[in-house]
Write a structure and sequence with these properties.
The complex is a heterodimer. By secondary structure, chain A is α/β, with parallel strands linked by helices. Chain A has helices spanning 118-131, 145-156, 175-189, 206-220, 223-229, 249-262, 267-279, 289-293, 313-325, 343-346, 349-368, and strands at residues 6-14, 20-31, 41-45, 70-71, 76-77, 82-86, 139-143, 163-167, 299-305, 330-335. Classes of the chains: A alpha/beta, B alpha/beta.
């Protein structure tokens, strides 16, 4: 399955901050075929550092970030469904973000880019979906920040979503989640190459961005998975160096991940997107999760993972209980995994069966309601 | 041992008879969702379940039933009053820590409750206890005392008494021994009792 990045342009987009973005590009990929009634579309929402390349193989031969879940015969079965995924607003992988040229100056926005929210990302996705002539999505789904967008979709566009599958996510960022993001942001800002975000003509704040990524990576794993993957093993040596080289496997892994990240991600996007996550609060303007989710009209499948300490199960349960208190149709399941927050990407065996069964049911019910 | 283990799928037919078309049904301890799927198919009900065992939850979701993974005793308070037409509790009331609380909650969140339980007053149970001088073991109570999930044993008479104390309206009562319906002396001859209750208000 070869996937091709496509782009649509939106004239203007009003933001939660009150500002208006002009000439916004949205990069997206699609897999499978849209049926005649346009009733089999599933929007996949990527996590923080993901992109539109969710499935298949791109022109560089790279697999999509959720190839394990999307494809022929997989959970999001592209033989049945038309699956699409777009890069989020503020991103750096084709959709307009701080590294894109500001139409007013022709130079990158950098810190001149307006602050964005999860709500803004979703409004832009809605414009994309509309532009494809789809009035209702069979499902929206994503993990982590993708789950936040899925929840936002259900509340902001209740008529446009038939089913919502938020995975390993939360209805609002907690102090701990904000704290980790802030460490990442401060690492970037403290890098002497940052230059208040205007580094596009010189070199990027690579060290700061790499440190931010290292912190992030720790939060995506679990004590168990790190013990299993690295233990206290030394890297390429028998004895301690008695210095500050990367003695341990885990050190060299994090350094590698950090440096690799710098090549594919923009530091300003890191700042803007983490801020959008921190601002995310489904209760805002409604008073409670229940009051906000009351607007939703879809059926929900909420999934969490036992070893995920970044978005622990209790946060999924808050969503589920708010839905149950409003008598919404919600399926909830906590999957057992040792992979921590990353489980939704890497430990997909049970997740596949559950998503597949849930989608099949939604499809049947949607068909019956016609 | 569950009702269906004894009755095959006969309890489905039985419970199915008690539930009108297109009702909204919550099954507590729904297992792999087989009963709910059956009712969905045969009666077009809106099906919801609660189940603790993860493998069962996966199986139920895979067959298209809406399940909440959780302990039923801690899971009912979230539902608003009269959220369901029927709330089912098949064979687990004797396993709950606070059976009265569970039953009261069932009648708060449902207009009707259907409770099926194994009758501890059955003659075989009495006989086993009398002759062996040990905790009774029968086909419905096959466990050794230390391995039994049952912590609150009850009989048909016990349940009748509780229902009248609590002012629950018994709309129907069905008694079974194996595959046979029991009409006389249920407390002695019924292995399984099935009650259809209506909340007092």
């Amino acid at each position: 399955m070869i996937s091709e990045l496509q782009t649509v342009r939106i004239d203007e987009l009003s933001l939660d901050s009150g500002e208006v973005l002009r000439d916004v590009a949205v990069a997206y990929e699609t897999y499978g075929r849209l049926n005649e009634r346009k009733s089999n579309a599933i929007l996949i929402l990527h996590a923080f550092t993901g992109d539109a390349h969710a499935a298949g193989v791109d022109k560089d031969g790279k697999d999509g970030w959720w190839s394990s879940m999307i494809g022929p015969g997989k959970a999001f079965d592209t033989d049945r469904y038309f699956v699409l995924c777009s890069n989020v607003l503020g991103g750096c992988r084709g959709t307009t973000g701080p590294s894109s040229p500001d139409p007013a100056t022709g130079k990158p926005y950098a810190m001149g880019f307006p602050v964005i929210t999860i709500g803004d990302m979703v409004r832009l996705q809605h414009r994309l979906v509309e532009s494809l002539g789809i009035s209702q999505l069979l499902a929206v789904s994503g993990g982590s920040m993708g789950g936040m967008q899925a929840l936002e979709w259900a509340v902001a566009f209740p008529e446009s979503v038939y089913a919502c599958i938020p995975i390993a996510t939360t209805g609002r960022h907690t102090a701990q989640q904000i704290a980790f993001n802030e460490v990442g942001r401060q690492a970037i800002v403290a890098d002497p190459d940052f230059h208040a975000g205007s580094y596009y003509e010189s070199k990027p704040p690579a060290r700061g961005l790499a440190v931010a990524r290292m912190v992030g990576h720790i939060t995506y794993m679990s004590d168990d998975s790190m013990r299993e993957k690295f233990g206290r093993r030394l890297r390429g040596r028998e004895e301690f160096s008695y210095g500050f080289d990367a003695d341990f496997e885990v050190e060299s892994y994090l350094r590698y991940r950090g440096s690799q990240f710098v090549g594919r991600f923009d530091a300003n996007s890191y700042l803007y997107i983490t801020k959008a996550m921190d601002y995310f609060d489904l209760t805002a303007g409604y008073g409670s999760l229940g009051a906000s989710l009351e607007r939703a009209k879809c059926r929900f499948l909420v999934i969490s993972f036992t070893s995920d300490w970044l978005y622990p199960s209790y946060q999924s349960l808050e969503i589920v209980n708010a839905l149950r208190s409003r008598n919404h149709d919600v399926t909830y399941c906590e999957l057992s995994s040792s992979y921590g927050h990353d489980a939704f990407l890497v430990d997909v065996t049970h997740q596949t069966g559950i998503v597949r069964g849930f989608l099949a049911r939604c499809e049947r019910e949607l068909e019956a309601a016609r | 041992m569950k009702v269906q283990d004894v009755l095959g799928r006969r309890d489905y037919a039985l419970i199915s008879k008690l539930i009108p078309q297109a009702s909204k049904v919550l099954d507590l301890g729904c297992g792999d969702g087989a009963l709910l799927a059956f009712l969905k198919e045969s009666k077009g009900i809106e099906a919801r379940g609660i189940e603790l065992n993860p493998e069962m939850v996966h199986a139920a979701i895979a067959r298209g039933v809406s399940v909440y993974q959780g302990n039923l005793e801690g899971s009912l308070r979230e539902y608003p009053d009269k959220a369901f037409d029927y709330v089912l509790l098949s064979q687990t009331v004797q396993e709950t820590r606070k059976p009265l609380k569970v039953l009261t909650e069932m009648l708060r969140i449902g207009s009707h409750a259907i409770i099926a339980f194994p009758n501890f007053g059955h003659w075989r149970v009495r006989f086993s206890h009398l002759i062996s001088g040990r905790a009774p073991k029968t086909r419905l109570f096959p466990h050794a005392w230390h391995a039994s999930p049952n912590i609150h044993f009850l009989t048909v008479l016990d349940f009748e008494e509780l229902a009248s104390e609590q002012g629950w309206l018994v709309e129907q009562r069905l008694f079974l021994s194996g595959n046979r319906r029991i009409y006389r002396f249920p407390n002695l001859y019924a292995e399984i009792a099935v009650y259809l209750l209506k909340s007092p208000s």
